[in-house]
Amino acid sequence: MSARLVIVLWLFGSICEINGAALSADDMFQRWTDFVATYDNKVAKLESLLTEKDERISLLEAKLDIEIEKKNSEMAQLKRDMTMLIQNTNILNKYKSAFTDEFEGKDVEEMELNVDIENSPTVARPENNAGLQKFKGDNTTHTNISKTVRHDDKDIKVDRLDGSRRGVERETLRRYRRVAPTPTVAFHTKMSSPRTLANGITIMFDEEALDQGNGYNQHDGIYTVPVSGTYVMTWKVLSAIHSVIHTSLVVNGVVMGNSDTDSEDITDIHQTTAIVVLRLNQGDLVLVRVTGTNLGGIVSDTFHGKATFSGWKI
């Protein structure tokens, strides 16, 4: 047994004697063993608690990292959404400014009428002074009379201000109307020069003067309807001397209107203009086709006039 262990045992025995217990060497050794075992157990428990604490800290740090990454992702998405919202707001403001400039002053129509209340048959006068209200202003007594005026087959309630300072009664009728901006759809084309066309040929009006809606193709003479709605279609043809030109308005292969320009028996130029009003759907194909001819020519020049093909949405 080492000297250090003997000293420790002696000290342990002295402590036991001080506590009033004279123990043998075996008892002292047993108590020492129990003491060491208890100490080791407590140390092991402390180490276990520290290990568990470290694991919890690691778990919390991992969760915190995940939450931070999630919040950073949400912040980045929020920044992108804000940027897109600002861009959309700027675009809407531009459209709003353009709309306001174009339709400013068109939403309200004011009419000032000079009405003779006493002689006007359109005024429903209050009976038994009903609707009369007296009030004073600037030391002058006025009468405010509510009445109904017949205007455009509608009863409109207006107020009449009658006073000694007003020789002529003035009434203002406000008629509100909604202005709904709609895109203008229209086209107008011409044939640039005279031509002789055979039966079944689509007439190409190759001189485009107007195409709002971008529907006409001057290279094949076909108008593709850009917006569904009711349209007016019209075309003008001038037949040369001793010529007969029969033309038709064709929509998706179906004839919807005809025109006959006949100069066969006279030495003169004839002109015909045809108009068709019809319902068209977006994507419909509209054209003017020669459906009958004696191989005569179509006149189109600045002196006699040019053959034209036009249309607009109403």
Automatic annotation (TrEMBL):
Residues passing through the membrane, by range: none
Coiled coil regions, renumbered to chain: 43-88
Domain C1q: residue ranges: 180-314
Membrane in keyword set: no
Highest taxon of the lineage: Eukaryota
Protein name: C1q domain-containing protein
SUPFAM superfamilies: TNF-like
The organism of origin for this protein: Mizuhopecten yessoensis
Keyword Coiled coil recorded: yes
Signal peptide: 1-20
Cellular compartments annotated: Secreted
InterPro entries: C1q_dom (IPR001073), Cerebellin_Synaptic_Org (IPR050822), Tumour_necrosis_fac-like_dom (IPR008983)
Main location: secreted
Keywords, in A-Z order: Coiled coil, Secreted, Signal
GO cellular component entries: extracellular region
